[in-house]
Design a protein that fits this description.
By secondary structure, the chain is mostly helical. It contains 14 helices and 4 strands. The longest helix has 28 residues, at 152-179.
């Protein structure tokens, strides 16, 4: 119930903002974001006091394809939901000393993006995860395109093409896994499953070469979103061109979608492929750290400086996540993963704090 409400609340308020005008718009947006943060805190303390609390919503959605509205929160999800709910009020508050043309649409898009981000961090159905993943792209695309700076059309189009291309690789990998899940008869139809548990089982049962295809399909999508070298070239220009609120959304929250995807979706599904290709992924992450740090040192534009430093930071996070050797279930834990989660949370607060 709480998980579903965390997704629906910003959606409802985002729709309501479209009908407001003037100063009431930003105040209503701030109120909605603070209310969302309060709800996230309630979920956090409820889970702390009752570790067995069920924070799952599992309802049929597209029965003919075995797709469910299946969302849940555990410790990893809750960290990123809290981060999102904490940062969005700060991002909205940072806009109070500026005026924006068509503020109703501007603040609605921020809340729509918050809804999609929380959906990404809680989705447990592969198709639903993909839907939220794409929905998170649309609001920030229009925020950058409509309120961005010079050359925003060209730069935003590049950002859109990069991220959409990566998403298509991810969709292909998820469909391949879906077709390899055990089929069951339901309502007279033979149905496969997009449920994360079934996708895990399907991925681990694939041959090594098939796991490799799935690994790179997912990794490309996550690597572009983070981004890490050499998939990073969209990021610095987008950070500079986007309005500051858009840059805060991108740097503080959106890049965490990629690192979260590594933990939640990639590693548990393809343990054999990870054992083979993980060192290359770590190498790309380390190159990102050194390469982006060197470029950041010579920047004179503040946004571009933070853009390159973020590439270095996310390279560190990615290297931490990819630094452990999973067991046959793909569910092993390590200090690297734990440290990466801490760094994801701290980087979000630090980078948004710098822009604020």
């Amino acid at each position: 119930m709480i998980t579903g409400l965390l997704i629906r609340l910003p959606l409802v308020f985002g729709l309501l903002l479209l009908f407001l005008k003037g100063e009431a718009v930003r105040k209503a947006a701030l109120f909605a974001s603070v209310l969302e943060f309060g709800l996230a805190l309630y979920a956090y303390f409820s889970l702390q006091n009752n570790p067995g609390l069920n924070l799952t919503v599992d309802e049929p959605w597209i029965r003919s394809m075995g797709i469910s509205f299946y969302v849940a929160m555990d410790g990893i999800s809750l960290v990123l939901v809290l981060l999102t709910a904490f940062l969005v009020p700060l991002i909205i508050l940072s806009t109070f000393n500026r005026s924006y043309e068509n503020p109703s649409l501007f603040y609605s898009l921020i809340l729509f993006m918050q809804m999609a981000l929380i959906g990404v961090f809680t989705a447990r159905d592969g198709f639903l995860f993909y839907v939220f993943w794409e929905l998170a792209l649309i609001p920030v695309y229009f925020i950058c395109l409509l309120w961005g700076g010079e050359n925003r059309g060209r730069i935003t189009f590049k950002f859109f093409v990069y991220t959409l291309s990566g998403s298509l690789f991810m969709l292909a990998a998820l469909i391949f896994l879906y077709l390899n899940t055990p089929a069951v008869y339901m309502d007279g139809q033979l149905l496969h499953s997009f449920r994360i548990e079934d996708l895990y089982q399907a991925g681990r049962g694939l041959a090594s070469n098939e796991q490799t295809l799935v690994f790179w399909g997912l990794f490309l999508a996550f690597a572009i979103k983070m981004p890490i070298f050499p998939f990073h070239t969209w990021q610095p220009d987008t950070y500079v061109t986007a309005p500051t609120a858009g840059t805060m959304l991108l740097s503080g929250i959106m890049l965490k979608m990629g690192t979260y995807g590594l933990i939640r979706w990639l590693l548990p599904m393809t343990p054999a492929a990870f054992a083979e290709w993980g060192p290359l992924a770590v190498a790309l992450s380390v190159i990102s750290i050194v390469y982006a740090s060197c470029i950041a040192l010579v920047q004179k534009d503040f946004k571009r400086l933070i853009a390159y430093s973020s590439i270095a930071h996310v390279g560190l996070i990615s290297a931490g996540i990819m630094s452990f050797a999973p067991d046959q279930t793909g569910l092993a834990h390590s200090e690297g993963v734990s440290g990466a989660i801490i760094q994801m949370f701290s980087h979000g607060i630090t980078v948004v704090g710098l822009f604020f």
